[in-house]
# Entry
Amino acid sequence: MLRRDCLLLFLCFLFEQSSCAPFQSRPGQEWPHSQTGPSTAGRNGGSRGFQRVKRGWVWNQFFVLEEYMGSDPQYVGKLHTDLDKGESAVKYTLSGDGAGTIFTIDQITGDIHALRSLDREEKPYYTLRAQAVDIETNRPLEPESEFVIKVQDINDNEPKFLEGPYTASVPEMSPVGTYVMKVTATDADDPTYGNSARVVYSILHGQPYFSVDPKTGVIRTALPNMDREVKELYQVLIQAKDMGGQLGGLAGTTTINITLSDVNDNPPRFSKSIFHLRVPESSAVGSAVGRIKAHDLDTGKNAEVEYNIVPGDGGAMFDITTNEHNQEGIIMLKKPLDYETKKAYTFKVEASNAHLDPRFHNFGPFKDTATVKINVLDVDEPPVFSKPFYTMDVYEDTPQGTIIGAVTAQDLDAGNSPVRYSIDWKSDLDSFFDIDPVRGTISTNELLDRESIAQHNISVVATKVNNPVLTSRVAVTVHVLDINEFPPELAMPYETFVCESAKVGQVIQVISARDQDLPQAGQRFSFKSPQEGVKTKNFTIRDFGNNTAGVVTLRGGFKRRSQEIYHLPVLIEDGGLQTLSSSGTLTIRVCGCDTDGSLLTCSAEAIFLPVGLSTGALIAILVCIVILLVIVVLYVGVRRQKKKETLMTSKEDIRDNVIHYDDEGGGEEDTHAFDMGTLRNPKVIKENLFRRDVKPELGLCPRRPIASQNSADISNFISQRLQEHDGDTSAPPYDSLATYAYEGEGSVADSLSSIESVKGEPQEDYDYLNEWGPRFKTLAGIFGERSESQSDVTSSTTTENKH
# Structure
């Protein structure tokens, strides 16, 4: 018992906020109890004679160690009240979090025990309520009080790195203290109690390259000039230990993989100083001759290399480019090679970095130089022609077998093999030419015609005798020269006319000629009239000297009435070595022209047309006359057709015919325009009212409708009218609608119809409208008419006849 109390006193010393509730009383609080004690009060039937006294016990919180591993329940504390005299008259009860399951209380002694091991990280405290009651009556001896049992933390959780393992990167050659990254470990223990959650960081593996701050966990470089090319990846083991790193603390570790990122701190270097390459002389321009490479220990863009040929001997024949994938230098052929001309080339190539870092300029120049020697290999080549192409001329109709030229080819190799010549048959399908296989002379094999083919393009093949596989070709163009074999002729058929008003010496037509021949110096034509020397002439030919001539009038006063057409012969000569000539005839028509010489007409019938009007104007006048005649005829036809048509001649069904009267009423105040009472009262129906939907027959007298004089019933009236229509022999042979409008009479109240009431309204005088000025003159004329001058207005009526 003494040992347990001492433990509790030690815990109270560690936590200044806590209090040893089972052993101290709180002053100032009283508990009411019986003067004779609780047991006596219970036995005496619950006497009410109590007196307030000080409370004999009070508590704030208890403590219980977590992770208790003992075999007996862990003692927590003791509840006791001064009212408990040790006579077993007081019973202690416990309720709240874990009461009965985790915590239990001895009802007689008030001892509290924990039934199982507790974990502070699962639940740090429990809130319970305690009360002292009479053991016999269960009457509370004092009010219920609440207290807390706090789970006392022990160092049972090690620090943990929740995000490990980690990956970080830092540039190579970084100075000491360069920040790498920060790691953080968490401890689930109570940070407010002791050092159980105070974590200290340290490096277990990774020194001397890196260091870690023991409090913050920041990792920094600890060694200068770490070179990626020496070692790129570092694995650092970091430990986090609680209890401030003291002996007995729990620890957790994590791994950090730190990579040194590359910087351009290494220049490119050739693996050797001289590169030997060989290339055949037959290599094509632009082909790859060889490859060289300068190695750079850096990576990425820091290892990109640029190659350049240093100007000097042999450098003009080659070029160099960089392969972006493997950073090799590809040497390309820039000009054709010839073993017989030059057998070897030597030049220098410089390799340098494309992206430089100014921080490392003190390391030296970031470039390297190597020598390239290229040996040209001799290749058995085909023969080479003396010219890239040949051009030859030959006159047409040249005799067969005439030599027109020659081609020459030779073997430039050391063997100097003889060459044989041939014509590619695909270029000379008709075999116009032949070639001597040894000398290379080309001769005609057929007669040539310039007018059929003016130019021949053939291909000559040269073959080495000792290696027939090696051949070369050259293009030969043969121009066929023209000879004068075709006479000239007029360039086109001319349509020539002369105006009646033409004057003497007037040029009425310019002519030219054409020739199928092709003289070397161009065409030259002369024109003349074969009628020269004849005294009476109308026209002549004037040669202008530029391959054209003009038709000139020799007189005036041409008349179509006397002669309409003239024929003029023309003689044309060319300027060839053997002059050829031809004659042609121009047809000249006499035409009428206006004052400025523009053609009007060339027909003889136009002579008798009125002077001053052109053909177009006369045609327009005739068209207008025809249109006017058509309009007049149509108008007369329409007028006659209207007279013949009846009222009911419509293409539509005449049963649906509605007759419209285009009479405009005078408005509400117009009481004289039409008497609507005639439609309702049969007494006022006019006698001479004929049907307008049929043509009236002669001798047929109109029927006077019988009005109901004695106010007969409307049904009798309708029956009577229906019989009249049924017996009407002049009715149309189709159904029509008959409207029987009848308003009864004899009512004491008279008629209520607005139509009937119109008749009795007095006439109104509208003469005052004339005094309103000229603006109302038209209105005064409309309303100023008197009823005696008004004409009867007849409305349309559609009847339906039932058969």
